[in-house]
Amino acid sequence: MDALLLKEYMKLEMVRMAEPEIGLEDVLVRVRACGICGSDVHGLDGSTGRRIPPIVMGHEAAGEVVETGAAVRDLKAGDRVTFDSTIYCGRCFYCTRGDINLCDNRQVLGVSPGEYRRHGAFAEFVAVPRRIIYRLPDQLSFEQAAMIEAASVAVHAVNLTPFPLGASAVVVGTGMIGLLAVQALRAAGCARVVAVDLEESRLESARKLGATETIAASQVNVPGAVRELTDGLGADVAVECVGAKPSVETAIASVRKGGMVTLVGNVSPTADLPLQAVVTRQIRLQGSCASSGEYPAVIALLAAGTIRVDSLISAVAPLGEGPAWFARLYRREPGLMKVILRP
Ligand SMILES: [Zn+2]
Ligand SMILES: [Zn+2]
Predict the structure, then answer these.
(1) Are 257 and 234 in contact (CB under 8 A)?
(2) Whole-model pTM above 0.90?
(3) Which residue of 14, 285, 319, 332 has the smallest Cβ count within 10 Å?
(4) CA of 107 to the centre of ligand 2 (A)
């Protein structure tokens, strides 16, 4: 089969590879669309240590069932499917509690951190366990389905953030996850969702996707502006989608006393904390990692049009153009959001 292989750091190449073999409980999927994740782009140069070559990356994918292992009885060739990026063991302490994203034996598709190597979906075929596969409704295209993984990250974060109907929320950072979080917060019943970013073009996208107000962080004191919008109180909750010192501080300073900040972004491994403000204002901080059982809900939300992903897709290109698209994303070409490759 054709595959896009990270042969060595900074060297992506189209190669011929053997088709993956499937075990008893596995399914062979013909990949029809696979999104390039930010973590794949960072994987290119080895800085994360999680894409040790040679590796076929790609974990945001959808396609058609080609063949099923002998123990798989409820899927057949031709079924349209997507799959989780996380392969969980189903047996550890966390899996038995349902916290599959925290699995002690978690593996991620298209990742090779040293202790394992799981070839991903930038290839004609990929083998995945039945338990991480979900059927797709007809009205979702494969390209839209390749966005389910990202949308589930946003929905998981919102699920971890309790608030009553009509609450106010701030989303700090309106890149892709932030724009999905804006929609998830509206869908979950927030009456007011304030989007914060440095880039006006992203704020415009946020308004189109349901943000009730936007604040340009480059021009305004964000917490002050949020208080003006919320009777001087601050927002009930904030979802932080960047993960750096200034944006974390902004999120914490934008919620009211007793409010909650859910932390999704982590571009910096560490960030100073305004400890006194968190303690004396009794603010709750909640980390959020990947997703944990949100796929069926996200599929339903996309199919119903409640969460819209089309405007987040910057380009759809053949897999062979993968190296060029990776290079453009690596250079941080402005205006590029999700690029989807089609084997
Ligand atoms: Zn991803
Ligand atoms: Zn487990």
Answers:
(1) yes
(2) yes
(3) 332
(4) 10
Q: What is the pLDDT of residues 149-189, one digit of tens each?
A: 999 999 999 999 999 999 999 999 999 999 999 999 999 99
E-state strands within 84-224: 86-87, 107-108, 125-129, 133-135, 168-172, 192-197, 213-216
Q: How far is the centre of ligand 2, averaged over its atoms, from the C-alpha of 104 (Å)? A: 5
Task: Please report which ligand is nearest the Cα atom of 94.
Answer: 2
Ligand with smallest separation from the Cα of 108:
1
Residue 321 has which token pair?
């153009």
Give CA–CA dist 229/213, Å, rounded. 9
Rounded to the nearest angstrom, the distance between the alpha carbon of 175 and the centre of ligand 1 is 13
Q: What is the mean pLDDT of the chain?
A: 97
Q: Are 77 and 66 in contact (CB under 8 A)?
A: yes
Which tens digit of pLDDT belongs to each residue from 274-298? 999 999 999 999 999 999 999 999 9
Helix (H) or strand (E) holding 150: helix 148-159
Q: Which ligand is nearest to the CA of 88?
A: 2
SS3 per-residue string spanning 264-295: CCCCCCCCCCCHHHHHHCCCEEEECCCCCCCH
Q: Which ligand is nearest to the CA of 291?
A: 1
Q: How far is the CA of 38 from the centre of ligand 1 (A)?
A: 7
* Amino acid at the residue 108: V
Asked if residue 129 lies in contact with residue 20, where contact means CB atoms within 8 angstroms, the answer is: no
